[in-house]
Each structure stands twice: as structure tokens, then as C-alpha cells.
Amino acid sequence: MDTDRPAEAIEVLTIGHSTRSIEEFLSLLRSNHVTTVVDIRTVPRSRRNPQYNTDSLPVSLAEAGIGYARMSGLGGFRKTRPDSPNTAWRNDSFRGFADYMQTDEFEKSLNDLIELARRKRVVIMCAEAVPWQCHRSLIADALTVRGVKVRHIIDKAHVNEHKLTSFARVEGAKVTYPGQTELDME
After folding, report:
1. HEC states along the chain?
2. Backbone phi and psi for residue 39, each to the nearest 5 degrees, phi listed first
3. Which residue segments constitute the domains of the chain, with CATH numbers given?
4. pTM over 0.70
5. How many CB atoms neighbour CB 63 within 10 A?
């Protein structure tokens, strides 16, 4: 399964560990043929679900024959810029991440993820169960505009194809989320 893929054949999956047991989580990974979990949590631990802490998750994955990588450059909890062009996001944490998406650090981390996805069947993992409540939906937007197919693992019966956020504005590979005021000024 690990091969170099042309750009148009790259697919990235996403998943939130939520409160799933490690057995259920591994089952979802296996059923989607995942070879590598890319942990994008800023704080890679969970008090309520210690099976997802960085000292236990990589061990469980290795025992299942699945690789583990951390990409802190794709982590959330970013600060909102005072001059944020992403005012369509009412949620400060989403707006802060959208602002961060304009940085070189984000671009480098996203390119690293795409390169890994050329060779491995990857899933980016965060904590939130549903992608629309997690910054991984913004990462999915950035991947989508670069021609990468993104699908969200919701549960055993639902793996949904990502649809670009309705109020996203795309210029080349740059995604912003301007509010109505910014659009009116153009």
C-alpha cells in the first residue's frame, strides 16, 4: 500500500478520536486501510481518554502495524490576528487557525503532509469526533484546493467526502474566509 502517488491520486483521511475505545479506533483505521496516523493535536494527550496520549497511542498503533507521526505545525489553538481577513468565522479559534493558514509554517507543514500522503495511506487525527467542529476541516479546505481528495471518517458506516467550506474564498492555493464587510470593499 505504501507507494509514490501522482498528485491527482493523493487522498488524505481525517478522524477525531473522541471517546472511542482504542479497539474501535483501530478497527476504523483498518477498515479504511490506513498505514500512518498523523497526530495534529497541539496538546497530544487526553485526561479522559489516556489511550490517545503520546506515550500510549504510538505503542497501540505499532502493535497493529500502523505508523505514527506528529505534525505540530498543523495543530490548532492559534491566535487571531488583529487585522484578520477571516471574519466570516465567528469562532475565534477557527478564525485564528484560518489566520495561521496564511503563514509559511503552515504551508511547510501542509506540504510535508502531502509528501507523506504520496507514499502512505494517511489519516490526520485530532480529538473532535465531527470534522465541522474541528480545525481539521480548515486543513481539509487547504488540501482540497491543492487537488488532494479528503474524506472524513465519522464512524464505521460513514466516510464523507470533504466539501469546501461554503464561505471560503480561493485564490490559487490560498484559502481565506472573508466576512461580508471585506467582500463589500472589493
Report:
1. CCCCCCHHHCEEEEEECCCCCHHHHHHHHHHCCCCEEEECCCCCCCCCCHHHCCCCHHHHHHHCCCEEEECHHHCCCCCCCCCCCCCCCCCHHHHHHHHHCCCHHHHHHHHHHHHHHHHCCEEEEECCCCHHHCCHHHHHHHHHCCCCEEEEEEECCEEEECCCCCCCEEECCEEECCCHHHHHCC
2. -80, 115
3. 7-184 (3.40.1010.10)
4. yes
5. 10
- The tens-digit pLDDT sequence of the chain (186 residues) is 556 666 568 999 999 999 999 999 999 999 999 999 999 999 998 889 999 999 999 999 999 999 999 999 999 999 999 999 999 999 999 999 999 999 999 999 999 999 999 999 999 999 999 999 999 999 999 999 999 999 999 999 999 999 999 999 999 999 999 997 544 444
Gap between the Cα atoms of 49 and 19, Å rounded: 6
Question: In the structure grid, which three cell numbers stand for residue 50, read together?
Answer: 489516556
In the numeric block, which cell numbers belong to residue 1?
500500500
How far apart, in whole angstroms, are the C-alpha atoms of residue 156 and residue 46? 23
Grid cell of 78 as nine digits: 492559534
- Distance CA(97)–CA(174), nearest Å, equals 14
C-alpha cell at 98: 484560518
Residues 87, 181 contacting (CB under 8 angstroms): yes
